[in-house]
Amino acid sequence: MQDHSDTVGSPSARTPDLSWAPIPKSRAHELVIEAIEEQVMSGRLSVGDTLPPERELASMLQVSRAGVREAIRMLESHGALESRVGAGSSSGTIITAMPSIALTRLLRLHIGLSNFPVGDVVELRIALERTSAGLASKNADDAARERMRETIERMSAAEVDREAFNEADTDFHVAIAEAAGNRLVADLTTAIRNSLRTQILHAFHHREQWTQLRDTLRDQHREIFSAICDGDAERAAALTEEHIRYAVAELPEMKLPRDDGSGA
Amino acid sequence: MQDHSDTVGSPSARTPDLSWAPIPKSRAHELVIEAIEEQVMSGRLSVGDTLPPERELASMLQVSRAGVREAIRMLESHGALESRVGAGSSSGTIITAMPSIALTRLLRLHIGLSNFPVGDVVELRIALERTSAGLASKNADDAARERMRETIERMSAAEVDREAFNEADTDFHVAIAEAAGNRLVADLTTAIRNSLRTQILHAFHHREQWTQLRDTLRDQHREIFSAICDGDAERAAALTEEHIRYAVAELPEMKLPRDDGSGA
DNA sequence: AACAGCTATGTGGTCTGACCATTCAGAGCT
DNA sequence: AGCTCTGAATGGTCAGACCACATAGCTGTT
Predict the structure, then answer these.
(1) What residues 39-58 of chain B have any CB closer than 8 A to a CB of chain A?
(2) Is residue A260 included in any domain, yes or no?
(3) Residue B20 predicted with pLDDT over 80
(4) Is the pLDDT of residue A227 over 60?
(5) Residue A182 burial class via C-beta count within 10 angstroms: exposed 0-12, middle 13-18, buried 19 and up
(6) How many domains is chain A partitioned into structurally?
(7) Is residue B92 within a helix (H) or strand (E), and if so which, with residue range?
(8) What is the mean pLDDT of chain A?
(9) Which of A83, A240, B105, B212 could be disulfide-bonded to A133 (CB atoms 3.0-4.6 Å)?
(10) What domain range includes position A47?
(11) A90 and A164 share a domain?
(12) What is the pLDDT of residue B184?
């Protein structure tokens, strides 16, 4: 933790620039977070390790247990921790690595707050999936290709309904992202997909006759799949962008953010 | 996401693969989060509004104040809330919209946990900034162009040191992202840049003679700037990718994540 | 009346201490 | 050996108190 006494500043400069205000972090839980983050950054704590028990951490850092718990909650909300009750080796608060869940919640929240228009999200999705498709064209192995093929098969099933189709659709894009070999991009792709899940499904249901749309989307998947198998990165990327733009254009209801508040 | 061991896996079948485990939400703070999120998603709460006081919320939801506070911390860590002490109108817990800070912390944390190799981050950065450059070529207004020009000027100053150069460098890329008119992409770009800030600076300092590198990078910025002013999206994107790849290649030290744990 | 200063009040921030619920390791019994 | 049961460790929750802080509004002076 840095001392917040660094008001120093350059004497000669006349307020040189902004620089984030060096807010005095007086809040206890932030100290705890800093302490934990320091351990993580220095490598003394890594995935799988367990934190000291809350009570112990509290006494070590000289804060109350509530403060420790608040810090743990914040880290947990970032997908960096997980708490398990009980005794023994598998209990306690352990360092984890589940950023995509955290990213999903974060994106969903801010989309809900209308900070991120759906159009912006779509643009990001295109950027990500172009990259994924390109990388997948080079890196995909047989198993990955099989996963993609399987989703297309599911999309082709005669009895497929909207939910199942959407699932298969999602799985196809996630499979590409994972095949690309870039965890970060894959996680972000998953997060975006999950953030928009409700709205996509909503749009699908507002589509009276969807069999034609379904077939078109499935065929586009086939083409993308083909390009990836051919190792044609450029074509895969272009087709992916085209596919996404087409889908968005065909599902205008997706842009309606406000729905009912009934969570599933 | 966690290990993708949870995905498919069973080739034979159905496995609706619902993803979301039916977690028994026994934890109190999760209920509180759901309650707040519901208000947000339904639009009853939006940016600027204030939440009921903690004590009141606690009694309304029939949980302890500690539970409420933990929920608030989690939302706060996502940049969706901010708490202020005191009385009167500007106090209390208010809904905010600061996703970029949250994204920064999240990325930094997971990069620290080695979940996201620097190479993956770079790939994402390229995807984002290609998009930004492309969009900026179409959307940039005079003010935005002026901001970019100013950063190039700062990079050209005779007395510029590594810190100042890095600041200007960052500002240039952020200016492009903002000029693109896509908040989400801009925030992510900022977050990535901030996440890597320490390591970039570290790499810069390990570079004995850096004047040549500095000039090259600055010239690349000039070219990108020129392409954007010309409205040449394709060229701007290509130059940006080239620029980033060049910088990464020239700063190999950036890939060393582990440092010493001694605070500066 | 206008202003300055003080106080009341409401808010988050923190701490303490207790108790509950869950889980596992190991003692003890069959 | 195998099973059962108990103890202990751990997170989950709660209640109540007090502190720090910032505004709103009252009070007193000019």
Answers:
(1) 39-44, 46-47
(2) no
(3) no
(4) yes
(5) buried
(6) 2
(7) strand B92-95
(8) 87
(9) A240
(10) 4-95
(11) no
(12) 92
